[in-house]
Amino acid sequence: MKTVRTKQLQDLPIAATLATTQQPHLLIIDCQQQAVVKLDQQAIVLKPSELVIVRTIKTVTVDPVRPGQTAVVRLFDETVDLRVTAPIGIAGDNPLFRDLLASQPPQSAYVVFRQLTSMVCQGYCDQLARLEALPIDDRMVTYQRQAVTMLLLTELLRQHFDAGSLTDSHFPQRTQIRYTNQATQGGSIMTYLAAHLATATLQNVATYFGYQPNYFSRLFKTIFKQSFSQKLIQMRIEAGKRQLALTDQTVAQISQQVGYQNTANFNQHFKQQTRLTPTAYRAQLKSR
Asked: Which domain of life does this protein belong to (predicted)?
C-alpha cells in the first residue's frame, strides 16, 4: 500500500498491465480525504470512502481540490488469481467485472464507485493495508490478500447498480456491441458519450454502434432506465459541475464545452438537477 498525502501535484507512474486474464492485476484507489485523481487524462473528484478499481492505466495524478488543501488517497497494488479465489466470491462471474478484468493496454479501464452505503468496503481496504505490511514472500499472506481483494470486488458488485458511477468510469471501447451483454453495452456507450459529450446526438451515437436510431433509443432505455436525452443532460450537468469545481472558466465557456449552444438552457437544466444555478453552485463550493 502507498498512501499519497499531498498539497502539490503528484504524478505516480503505474504499470499499464502486469498479468493475464486469469491473474488480473488491479490498482485500488481508496480516497481518505477529498482529492482530484487524474487517471491518464480524465480528472475525477473523489470524496472520502469513494473507490476506483483500475485494470489498465498509464499514470495516476493526485491533487487537492483547491490550493492549500491536503488530498489523501491509499493505493493498493493487488493481483487476484481467479482460478483460486473466484469460488469464494462471484465478482469474477459478473459481466461488468469480467469485461474490466479482461481489458488489455492501450485502453484505460476502471470503475468508479461512489455513495457506498456501508463501511464494509472500507473494512476490506483496512485489512489490505494490514496485510500489505506483512512479508511479501509469504504464500499465505499472498492468498489472504487475493481473497480480501476478491471479497472487496464481491461487495462492490453487490452495490454496483447504486454506487457504480458509469459517467466517471472508463470501460474498454467497442464498436460492435450487438451480441454482448448489457453491462458491456452500457459501459461502451457511456465511455463513448463521455468522450463526445459536446457533440453527441442520438443519430450519431446510434450510427457509431451500428444501430438504427429508433432501435438504439429503445435499447438505451432498457439498459439505463432513462431516455437518451435524459441521460445526456445528466452527463452534461455532471461534467459542468466538475468544470465549475476544478476551473475558473466562465459559466458560458463551460456550457459550450459540455454541449450547450445556449447558456440559458444550461442554467435551466443545471438548476433542475441541483436546485442551484451554476454561479450559486460554484460559490457554495468555495465557501466550504
From this structure: Bacteria
